[in-house]
Amino acid sequence: MMKHAAMEIESSDKGSLGPGLSPLSETLWREKTNTELIGDVSARLTWKDLTVTVTLSTAGETQNVLEGLTGYAEPGTFTALMGPSGSGKSTLLDALSGRLAANAFLSGTVLLNGRKANLSFGTAAYVTQDDNLIGTLTVRETISYSAQLRLPDKMSPSDKEALVESTIVAMGLQDCADTVIGNWHLRGISGGEKRRVSIALEILMRPRLLFLDEPTSGLDSASAFFVTQTLRALARDGRTVIASIHQPSSEVFELFDQLYLLSGGKTVYFGHASAAYEAINLNSAAFFAQAGFPCPALRNPSDHFLRCINSDFDKVKATLKGSMKLRFEASDDPLDKITTAEAIRTLNEYYRTSQHSYAAIQKVDDISKIKGTVLDAGGSQASFFRQSYTLTKRSLINMSRDFGYYWLRLVIYIVVTICIGTIYLNIGTAQAMTQFWYLRFKNARGSCASFVFGFVTFMSIGGFPSFVEDMKVFQRERLNGHYGVTAFVISNTLSAMPFLMLITFLSATICYFMVRLHPGFSHYVFFVLCLFASVMVVESLMMAIASVVPNFLMGIITGAGIQGIFMLVSGFFRLPHDIPKPFWRYPMSYISFHFWSLQGQYQNDLRGLLFDNQSPDLPKIPGEYILENVFQINVNRSKWIDLGVIFSMILVYRIIFFVMIKVNEDVTPWVRGYVARRRMQNKNIAPDALTQSPSLRAYVNRDTRRR
Ligand SMILES: Nc1ncnc2c1ncn2[C@@H]1O[C@H](COP(=O)(O)OP(=O)(O)OP(=O)(O)O)[C@@H](O)[C@H]1O
Ligand SMILES: [Mg+2]
Predict the structure, then answer these.
(1) Using a 6 Å cutoff on CB, does residue 83 contact ligand 1?
(2) Residue-range definition of the domain harbouring residue 357
(3) Is 358 in the same domain as 428?
(4) Three-state DSSP state, 240
(5) Residue ID of nearest Cα to ligand 1 atom 31
(6) Is the pTM of this model over 0.90?
(7) Spatial separation of the C-alpha atoms in residues 387 and 377, rounded to whole Å
């Protein structure tokens, strides 16, 4: 039945170029690369003696995850990486694409067109094992925003749309094109469909070099076949495609050009996929048969390979033998006579001395000798303004649809401000006739302002989980070169503004009129603006934290801690003159936005008002007196300056946010790499062989400079 479905798909494609490749993409490709000027733009990737070592956090131990891998991927071929779980497939893809974890080190050479290159930020596209998508957009919107972000500005909207539609068809997503992706409160498309959306986003631009980590996991055999077929068509179009694939069906296996079999980080086989189980010409024999493990007639070749090299079968067998002895004794499979561990060793040994291995080494040497074109960071073709505009629009739509992003906060803000309004209702200027009048006083207007600017702004922390989701999407798109950091920071700032304006406008208005703060339009405007600026600062602060601490629980704790400290030095819990001078007053209180907002708001509220004295016979007390003597506020500084300081803090935090992302991209991997290298040096493990941890743009720069 499944096979039948797959055949149908295959036959329906015969007339055309193959699924997913509209002629349009070809024009785009030509335009984009300007073939006459640059010449050959295909990507030839080679890796030689690739070893990846990871340091394990416990007592500085190290472990080789990959050992001495040699191989290549050529344009026009589809290379499949296969191996049992934990054999290092993802690690190999990470190593090739320059995205190894911070504790992993690469030795050996990875060359693109005979040169060292950094494949991050757009040179290669990489669909990783997890799908980070914006949950509130539909499939079509997701793909079409991605197209807007990256296709050249001069391409007409109808061409863009045609490309988007053809990509949707290429991934078989027509039926769910208008369904939302789904998030915590929206049930959306299925897991397999998400997988296909992630792939669609990368094949959209027809990258020259494409890595995919398990593109077919979670798909049934018909759609796995369909997706693999599309990928192969992409490869046939002159692109280089490398994908790791788990347990392919025999139809899918037949689509592979090259097969890279890994077990325990070592090569078991690398060569033509078909040569692994059948003789390709008269004077050669099938690799597995030669090595002593012929594929039984009725077994799917890929199942056979994985059966041979999955050492977990030893454990399974051992367990089963205890309970179901008879079954195993009857079989005459060669694999039952030896353990899988031995089979792997035999295959490793056999491969190392086989013609396949020599041929691979020869080919790698041949390819790396030719210094081909330096592929520029492909990524986005759109202008900076187009990127910022599209991102802002996309982000606005996401925020307006995600109930948890701002709407929930709006509700809570209104509820809380109504509470404030009723508790401090018509606050007035009357003071109790007591010696401690100023204490009561402080507790009314002062504590109201302090609550509004302390706790109400604090509630903005609630958006953090949504920021973290945004950051994940950003990270994926950034590493694939969809847009730059600046465009992201700008769009994020702009799109948040309307929502924060609405929230702060409504809550400040409720609070202002219910409490009856200092009457007058300019006082009202100041109050609204001050609340807006403060919430914006919190938002910016939390974004900066999200760029460093990408986990929402840890991020909320960090953010709450920082704001708690700022609140302490705001001048309410301890009066400004009482705050200990070293550190807490200078500089901490000046760094705290709470301090500035309270200084401004106290002036805004009290200046010009007259307050009742202890007894009605005594003259009224002017607000300025209270400001100076009770709140210890500098009355010579205009409240507008205080507001200006808060606004400039927004800018500062946004810059910090930008810098943090840059630091994370460039400096942190280097520092971590350095520390781990030192640790390995102490353990005397060939330190010179280790190169830096990836994601350093230094490689690219060095190469371009040499040119
Ligand atoms: N940074 C790292 N630190 C520690 N161990 C690591 C690291 N990276 C990979 N490993 C280990 O290396 C092995 C290979 O991992 P990898 O993710 O490449 O496997 P895989 O073949 O992709 O498996 P799967 O099919 O389950 O995705 C695993 O045992 C893993 O625990
Ligand atoms: Mg993996």
Answers:
(1) yes
(2) 2-369
(3) no
(4) strand
(5) 86
(6) no
(7) 16
How far is it, in rounded angstroms, from Cα 1 to Cα 20? 24
Tokens 């991020």 locate to: 555
Question: How many domains does the chain divide into?
Answer: 2
Pairwise CA distance, residues 193 & 172, whole Å: 9
Considering the domain architecture, whether residues 441 and 360 belong to the same structural domain is answered as no
Cα 356–Cα 358–Cα 363 angle in degrees, nearest 5: 95
What is the enclosing helix (H) or strand (E) of 591? helix 588-591
Contacts of 603 (CB under 8 A, 6+ apart): 627, 633, 635, 638, 639, 642
Ligand 1 pocket, 86 CB below 6 A? yes
Tens-place pLDDT, residues 408-438: 999 999 999 999 999 888 887 765 434 455 5
Q: Which ligand is nearest to the CA of 312?
A: 1
CA of 129 to the centre of ligand 1 (A): 12
Same domain for 239 and 147, yes or no, is yes
pLDDT digits (tens, 9 = 90+) for 499-519: 999 999 999 999 999 988 888
Domain boundary among the residues 344, 369, 394 is at 369
Q: Is 659 in the pocket of ligand 1 (CB under 6 A)?
A: no
Q: How many residues does the chain have?
A: 707
Atom of ligand 1 nearest to the CA of 101: 1
> Rounded to an integer, what distance in angstroms lies between the CA atom of residue 317 and that of residue 416?
63
Is residue 65 within 6 Å of ligand 1 at its C-beta? yes
* Separation CA 666–CA 73 (nearest Å): 28
Question: Which residue is listed with tokens 């079509």?
Answer: 140
* Residues 530 and 620 occupy one common structural domain: yes
- CA-to-CA dists, residue 369 to 50, 115, 123, 484, angstroms: 18, 9, 21, 34
Side chain identity at residue 327, one-letter code? R
Ligand 1 pocket test, candidate residues 87, 260, 268, 693, most atoms within 8 A of CB: 87
d(CA 670, CA 688): 16
CATH code for the domain of 41 = 3.40.50.300
Contact 102, 673 (CB under 8 A): yes
The answer to whether the CB of 101 is under 6 A from ligand 1 is yes
Mean pLDDT in residue range 389-404:
93
Is 387 touching ligand 1 by the criterion CB < 6 Å?
Answer: no
Residue nearest to atom 3 of ligand 1 (CA): 54
| Exposure on the CB side of residue 287, measured as CA atoms within 13 A | 28
**If DSSP states are collapsed to H, E and C, what string results for 480-504?**
CCCCCHHHHHHHHHHHHHHHHHHHH
62 Cα: distance to centroid of ligand 1 (angstroms): 14
